[in-house]
Design the sequence.
C-alpha cells in the first residue's frame, strides 16, 4: 500500500501564531488562556477563553480580503500558507490539479452570524453585509485556501464536531490512496467567539468558570476540573504520498498510518458512559494500521477537562491497552490552549509529529490534584523526554463522533 506522509505544518493558536511558536509554548507549558477580548463578556458566567492574540488579518490578507472573509477562513488561509512554505511545496499550473484541500470546521461562522443579526436588528436590511452568507458557510475556509494557493484538485469540508480536524487528515489519506490527489492540505479551523455561543455553552455547564485564574482554568484529568475552555485557531498539515515526497526530496515529519471513524450513537453531547465505543475506535485504529498496543509510545488525548470526558477517555485507554495503559505517556494540549473545536484534532496530530521529531512529550498542565478515576501517566506539568516512534491522537465530539488516527516515524 502507498505510504502517506506529512511534510509541512502551519498553526495559529492561543499560544503562538506559527507552528514553531505553538510547539515551543506547549513544551514549555505556557498557557494562552485569558480574559475574553472579542466582546464584552462581563455579564457572562464564563469570561475566559483561549483567544488567538496578535493576529491582524489585514497584515496578511489586506483590507479588501479581510472585509470579505470570516475569521475562521482568515486563520485557515494564513496557516495553510505556513504549511505549504514549511513543506517546500511549489504550486503551479502543472501540479495544481493534483493538489487538494480539506479544511473542516465545527462552529463555522457563528460570530459573523451574530453580527449580521445585530446589524439587521439595529439598522435594517441595508446594514447586513453582502458577504455575510458566502463568507460563513462551512466550505468557505477550504475554498478560500484553494483560491489563495491556486489549487484545483479536490476541495472539500465537513463537520464532525470536535473530531473534525482528525477526520480531515483521515479523508486526505483516503484521497491520496484513491489516486485522486498527490498532495492534500488538510486540517481544521474554528473561530466561534460570539455572545450566543458563550451563553449556550455556559448554560450547558460545559465550560470552566474559573474566571479569576484563567491560566489554570483548563485542568484535564485533575480532580478540580470544572469544564473545558473555549478556544479558537487553525492547524493545517501538508499530506502527500511518500512517492511524491521522495520525488521532490521533501523533508518528512512522519507517516499518517491510518485511523478510524466511529459513532457512539448515544447522546447529542454526552459520550457513552462505559467508554466502549471510544475504546472500539482506538482498538480499530490500531488494528487497521497493524499497530500493537504496546508499540504506542504516546497518546495525545482528547482531554477536554470535563468531568465525563476525562474519565471516559481514561476508561477507554485501559480497555484497549491493558497493562501497557499505565506505561504509555498521555497528555492534553488543551490544558494550555483550551478547546480549539474543529482545529483540535489537527493540533493533536501536529503535537504527535513534533514529539517524534524532538523526542519530547508536552505536559498536561494544571494537573495538581489527580482524579482517582483518572489514573494514567498524564505527564503532569513538565514536559518529558520520550523516544516516540508511534503515537495516536484521540478526538471525541458531540453526537458521539469518534476519530482516532495513528502516526508513525517514516
Sequence:
Amino acid at each position: 500500500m502507498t505510504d502517506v506522509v506529512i511534510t509541512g505544518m502551519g498553526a495559529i493558536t492561543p499560544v503562538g501564531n506559527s507552528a514553531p511558536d505553538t510547539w515551543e509554548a506547549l513544551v514549555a507549558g505556557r498557557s494562552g488562556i485569558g480574559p475574553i477580548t472579542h466582546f464584552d463578556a462581563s455579564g457572562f458566567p464564563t469570561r475566559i477563553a483561549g483567544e488567538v492574540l496578535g493576529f491582524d488579518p489585514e497584515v496578511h490578507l489586506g483590507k479588501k480580503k479581510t472585509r470579505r472573509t470570516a475569521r475562521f477562513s482568515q486563520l485557515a488561509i494564513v496557516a495553510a500558507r505556513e504549511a505549504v512554505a514549511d513543506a517546500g511545496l511549489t504550486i503551479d499550473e502543472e501540479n495544481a490539479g493534483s493538489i487538494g484541500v480539506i479544511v473542516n470546521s465545527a462552529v463555522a461562522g457563528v460570530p459573523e452570524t451574530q453580527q449580521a443579526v445585530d446589524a439587521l436588528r439595529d439598522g435594517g436590511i441595508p446594514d447586513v453585509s453582502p458577504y455575510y452568507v458566502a463568507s460563513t458557510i462551512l466550505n468557505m475556509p477550504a475554498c478560500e485556501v484553494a483560491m489563495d494557493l491556486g489549487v484545483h484538485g479536490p476541495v472539500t469540508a465537513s463537520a464532525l464536531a470536535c473530531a473534525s480536524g482528525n477526520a480531515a487528515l483521515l479523508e486526505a489519506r483516503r484521497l491520496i490512496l484513491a489516486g485522486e490527489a498527490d498532495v492534500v492540505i488538510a486540517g481544521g479551523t474554528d473561530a466561534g467567539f460570539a455572545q450566543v455561543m458563550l451563553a449556550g455553552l455556559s448554560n450547558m455547564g460545559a465550560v470552566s468558570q474559573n474566571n479569576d485564574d484563567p491560566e489554570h482554568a483548563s485542568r484535564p484529568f485533575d480532580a478540580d476540573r470544572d469544564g473545558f475552555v473555549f478556544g479558537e485557531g487553525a492547524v493545517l498539515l501538508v499530506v502527500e504520498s511518500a512517492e511524491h515526497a521522495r520525488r521532490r526530496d521533501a523533508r518528512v515529519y512522519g507517516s499518517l498510518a491510518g485511523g478510524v471513524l466511529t459513532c457512539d450513537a448515544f447522546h447529542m453531547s454526552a459520550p457513552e458512559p462505559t467508554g466502549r465505543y471510544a475504546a472500539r475506535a482506538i482498538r480499530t485504529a490500531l488494528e487497521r494500521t497493524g499497530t500493537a498496543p504496546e508499540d504506542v509510545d504516546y497518546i495525545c488525548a482528547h482531554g477536554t477537562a470535563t468531568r465525563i470526558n476525562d474519565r471516559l477517555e481514561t476508561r477507554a485507554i485501559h480497555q484497549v491497552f491493558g497493562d501497557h495503559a499505565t506505561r504509555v505517556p498521555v497528555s492534553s494540549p488543551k490544558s494550555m490552549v483550551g478547546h480549539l473545536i474543529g482545529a483540535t484534532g489537527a493540533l493533536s496530530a501536529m503535537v504527535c509529529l513534533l514529539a517524534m521529531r524532538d523526542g519530547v512529550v508536552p505536559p498536561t498542565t494544571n494537573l495538581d490534584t489527580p482524579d482517582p478515576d483518572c489514573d494514567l501517566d498524564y505527564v503532569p506539568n513538565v514536559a518529558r523526554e520520550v523516544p516516540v516512534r508511534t503515537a495516536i491522537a484521540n478526538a471525541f465530539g458531540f453526537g458521539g463522533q469518534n476519530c482516532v488516527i495513528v502516526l508513525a516515524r517514516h
Remarks:
- The mean pLDDT is 97.
- Residues 49 and 230 are 5 Å apart (CA to CA).
